[in-house]
Amino acid sequence: MSQENESSVHDILTKVDDNTWEVPANFKPGMNVPGRIFVSKTLLDILEKETIDQVANVASLPGIQKYSMAMPDAHLGYGFSIGGVAAFDKHEGVISPGGVGFDINCGVRLIRSNLSEEDVRPKLPELLDALFEAIPSGVGSKSRRKVNDKELDDIFVHGVRWAVENGYGVKGDISHCESNGTMPGADPSKVSIKARKRGRPQIGTLGSGNHFLEVQYVDKIYDEEAAKAFGLKEGQITFMIHCGSRGAGHQICTDHLQVLSQASKKYKITLPDKQLACAPAESEEAQDYFKAMTCAANYAWVNRQVIMHWSREVFDSFFKEEFGDLGLDLVYDVAHNVAKLEKHTIDGEVKEVYVHRKGATRAFPAGHPEVPEDYRNIGQPVIIPGSMGTASYILKGCPAAMELTFGSACHGAGRVMSRKSAKHDLRGEEIQNELKAQGIIVRATQPSLIAEEAPEVYKSSSDVVDVVHNLGIATKVARVLPMGVVKG
């Protein structure tokens, strides 16, 4: 970071503790609350000033509670920063698509197995080829299962339950998804014909961008009790699926942004950035968006569920005859981009608020009723993916998250280089060969996709996770390392 930028960032922020920095409420006119940015000194040194501006802009929206926040993986996004968290009063606040993002319920799930690294390593190239063949990936990729309009409505309303009832999984998968893989209140009538058209052929597809399917092994256990509850042990094979609501979610966001841009004017909401288009939470415009967003969130859970089902079939065909039951159980599935109506204690009073998590993970602690029963004594699994060449982490949600961040943690490593710059500066074939030398095999539709998501375009996942661990928002349970990656 340049000395000029370092000076400007440090001039703006007030240090609260080693991992917490405040954006004062007088930093910009119109701020209703201060901002809170959770970063270490190392991460602060690579934080863009524009991200601080976005945190301050969000702080000016009506009805915001306590703080406008940014998690340690924060970087510049559409309106809200990626890694942004904000809660708005149910009655006096707003709902904003910019606080969710275009890839509604982009999220990640982790599946464990009874296999060891030694079982899988000899067959890894062939396994990745089979996964790459089985799971459609890339821009505009089409599914092996095109659904009709009636099925699409069922997916929008019933989420993962639709998938399990149609043979794509088992009942136990449902309770191991955030919100049981189905948010209530979805209304397919609020989804446009164009969004439906984009959604019908894409169930069970990875898409592109930073989406992936990764075969991993558990490298380190930090918390034996929690790891046992999550069914994790050292040397064990896991795989992780990261993707979202595909074209349907993108179109739903696009459609409703147009409506809410007009609604902001109608309700005379002063916006410091037009990308923060919003409407009063109880207005028809905001509720229409929320009902359509819920459809996309439920679609995304089905998408990851179907990908998991087809991946289980691939693993079974490779290993079941030799190893018997592979124990391919879903550890957990978390949303990264979503708005939810939740109850939180604010200044001693329990209030209902719309929590916007945009590139952030819910991190509810032990005892919370929304944590699955078999994890309720431990806390919610919090899954933090790294990049293709770096570690991913499994953490558990802790009580400090409810006090500091409306029950939220980071969602990944966070970019330090744009996709455009990465494609210009890096060569996919070189990255692929470098990873291969480290024992990591990558399959992708195009080399440029590998360049876009090269390990060096991301912050250190370890640095990011250390911040939430040290703050006590979510603490480390296990670390997994990549062996093979199917790139979306």
UniProtKB/TrEMBL annotation:
InterPro entries: RtcB, RtcB-like_sf
Major enzyme class: ligase
Cofactor: Mn(2+)
Subunit structure: Monomer.
Residues annotated as binding Mn(2+) 2: 242, 336
Gene3D superfamilies, sorted: tRNA-splicing ligase RtcB
Protein name: tRNA-splicing ligase RtcB
Annotated residues for binding of Mn(2+) 1: 103, 211
Domain of life: Archaea
Function: Essential for tRNA splicing and maturation. Acts by directly joining spliced tRNA halves to mature-sized tRNAs. Joins RNA with 2',3'-cyclic-phosphate or 3'-phosphate ends to RNA with 5'-hydroxy ends.
Name of the gene: rtcB
Pfam families in UniProt: RtcB (PF01139)
GO biological process, one term: tRNA splicing, via endonucleolytic cleavage and ligation
The keyword Metal-binding appears for this protein: yes
Active site: 411
Family that this chain belongs to: Belongs to the RtcB family.
Cofactor, free-text remark: Binds 2 manganese ions per subunit.
Reactions mediated catalytically: a 3'-end 3'-phospho-ribonucleotide-RNA + a 5'-end dephospho-ribonucleoside-RNA + GTP = a ribonucleotidyl-ribonucleotide-RNA + GMP + diphosphate; a 3'-end 2',3'-cyclophospho-ribonucleotide-RNA + a 5'-end dephospho-ribonucleoside-RNA + GTP + H2O = a ribonucleotidyl-ribonucleotide-RNA + GMP + diphosphate + H(+)
Keywords: GTP-binding, Ligase, Manganese, Metal-binding, Nucleotide-binding
Organism taxonomic ancestry: Archaea, Methanobacteriati, Methanobacteriota, Stenosarchaea group, Methanomicrobia
Binding positions (GMP): 210-214, 336-337, 385-388, 392, 411-414, 487
Organism for this UniProt entry: Methanolobus mangrovi
EC nos: 6.5.1.-
MF-aspect GO terms: GTP binding; metal ion binding; RNA ligase (ATP) activity; RNA ligase (GTP) activity
